[in-house]
Amino acid sequence: MIKQHPFQYEEWPDDSALSESDRSLLQEARQVTELAYAPYSNFWVGAAARLISGAVVTGSNQENASYPVGTCAERVLLGHAALRYPGDAIETLAISYHPKDKSSYVPLYPCGMCRQALLEYELRFQRPIRLILSGMEGAVHCIESANSLLPFAFTGQGLRS
Ligand code: THU
Questions:
Q1: Cα 5 to ligand 1 centroid, rounded to whole Å
Q2: Cα of 96 to ligand 1 centre, how many Å?
Q3: 91 and 50 Cβ atoms separated by less than 8 Å
Q4: Which domains can be identified in the chain, with CATH numbers?
């Protein structure tokens, strides 16, 4: 039997379709690309999350001469949120990026490791994380839950079964 697993997302031509607060969160993610430390890839990523309390936390990628030691913007943000605002779940997370000295027009989807980390954060707080993905300009994708980016994921439940 063939089964299908649907993936739903919103696509907008630019950020003008977003609410004021989503647009400002995406703006923040675009701004913090400037705080990336990415001398090896020259690929600058920024993330900004609005928490339930309304607080905003950010992250940017932090690379290392020993390449695998580097950390993506999303996981830098999650560590920042967990430490600075314990118990305060993430409501919406915006991600943007640009290659050094260039703009970007296509939404960036989180890497596999970050999808796993985002899923864990959703399960930990029992709350979906809404994602807003966009380059420095152009198309915006919105996804209702990070969970939908990792179908059939491995979770703590798998460890117990
Ligand atoms: N990167 C992120 O920060 N987030 C992603 O979701 C994809 C990749 C970073 C890691 C590395 O510093 C650079 O982008 C190139 O892979």
A1: 27
A2: 10
A3: yes
A4: 20-151 (3.40.140.10)
Q: How do residues 104-158 score in pLDDT, each as one tens digit?
A: 999 999 999 999 999 999 999 999 999 999 999 999 999 999 999 999 999 988 8
Q: Which H or E run contains 72?
A: none
Pairing mode of beta strands 90-99, 130-134: parallel
For residues 81, 85, 90 and 94, what is the CA-based torsion angle, rounded to 10 degrees?
-40
| Catalytic residue chosen out of the listed positions 10, 20, 28, 74 | 74
Q: How far is CA 109 from CA 4, 37, 135, 142, 156, in A?
A: 21, 19, 10, 11, 24
Concatenate the DSSP letters of all residues of 17-69 into one string: GS-HHHHHHHHHHHHHGGG-B-TTT-EEEEEEEEETTS-EEEEE-B--SSGGG
Please report the atom of ligand 1 found closest to the CA of residue 109. 6
Chain segment 62-93, per-residue pLDDT in tens: 999 999 999 999 999 999 999 999 999 999 99
